[in-house]
Design goal:
185 residues; mainly alpha; 8 helices
Length: 185
């Protein structure tokens, strides 16, 4: 078993491929041509990193893992040209960060969608029929929130905030109490 068998992406080979592609991008920009597409190897690395990161304990149980991986690969494609091999020799780390934050953004989008569904069901069920259909023995708090897997913190985050009313204070002028016409005389 060689040293590289433990790694699913060879960082040196990935760096070489990114450096070569980056040179092609710079050359295309100088000639006014569109960016060249990424190579199959680079795309495969993006997918491998995203798939493996989605199997971590903090991401594995989400039912929309496929959407998370798709968003992550899309983000990698969008920001691949921003990778500078002169500044960083670790493309694996660079793209892992892009993928990680793409996962977090997808999770927030899905939670917001669940909150919207939660509010629709909650407002539509003014008689309580839907909440009675949910298993009352398994629900400990808000049955709608539990059904849509929302915590009270999620509900607070997505609920519209009440605007604070600003008390208007009248600034006193040095001529306070005098009429505008009175100050002319």
């Amino acid at each position: 078993m060689s040293e590289n068998d433990n790694h699913y992406v060879d960082n040196k080979k990935f760096l070489a491929a990114m450096s070569e592609w980056k040179l092609e991008v710079i050359e295309a920009e100088n000639q006014g041509d569109p960016k060249p597409p990424i190579t199959d190897y680079i795309g495969e690395c993006f997918l491998l990193i995203a798939e493996r990161l989605s199997l971590r304990a903090n991401f594995i149980n989400y039912p929309y893992r496929d959407e998370m991986v798709g968003d992550a690969v899309e983000n990698c494609l969008m920001y691949a040209s921003n990778f500078d091999p002169e500044k960083s020799k670790n493309p694996f780390s660079y793209f892992t960060q892009i993928i990680y934050y793409a996962f977090l953004r997808r999770i927030q989008k899905e939670k917001k969608q669940n909150f919207i569904k939660y509010k629709i069901v909650e407002t539509a069920d003014h008689m309580g029929n839907i909440s009675r259909m949910l298993d009352p023995e398994k629900t400990t708090g808000n049955p709608y929130a539990e059904f849509f897997k929302l915590t009270s913190k999620d509900i607070d985050n997505f609920s519209p905030k009440k605007k604070k009313s600003k008390k208007k204070t009248k600034k006193k002028n040095k001529n306070d109490g005098e009429d505008e016409c009175g100050s002319l005389f």
